[in-house]
Specification:
single chain, 102 residues, mainly alpha, 2 domains, 72% helix, 0% strand, rod-shaped, DUF3040, transmembrane, DUF3040 domain-containing protein
Length: 102
């Protein structure tokens, strides 16, 4: 690398550290932030269980089972979106669904 390239790289590192210190710290420590939160996994499993209940309710023609499955699906969707909103976002890649709270 030339001296000019090294200088530019250092400027970029300093700019990143100033704009997003937690991301810069994670990059320096080598941490990967690609783990799916447990709440999102739980919400997905709950949604699938709700879908199974809806299908069972339709197959057995028992309204209570289908309605319970639908309510479980609605709750699971809410839990999933709440878990997604709670995830830290980089200023460069904001969420499409929720506006940041300032």
């Amino acid at each position: 690398m030339s001296d000019e390239e090294r200088r530019r790289l250092e400027e970029l590192e300093n700019l990143l550290s100033a704009q997003d210190p937690s991301l810069a710290r994670n990059l320096q420590e080598g941490k990967q932030d690609n783990q799916v939160p447990r709440r999102m996994v739980f919400a997905t499993l709950a949604f699938l269980a709700g879908l199974v209940l809806v299908l069972m309710g339709v197959a057995t023609q028992v309204l209570v089972i289908g309605a319970a499955g639908f309510l479980l699906e609605c709750a699971a969707a809410y839990w999933f979106l709440e878990a997604q909103a709670a995830q830290p976002r980089s200023p460069m890649f904001p969420s499409r669904f929720f506006k940041p709270k300032h």
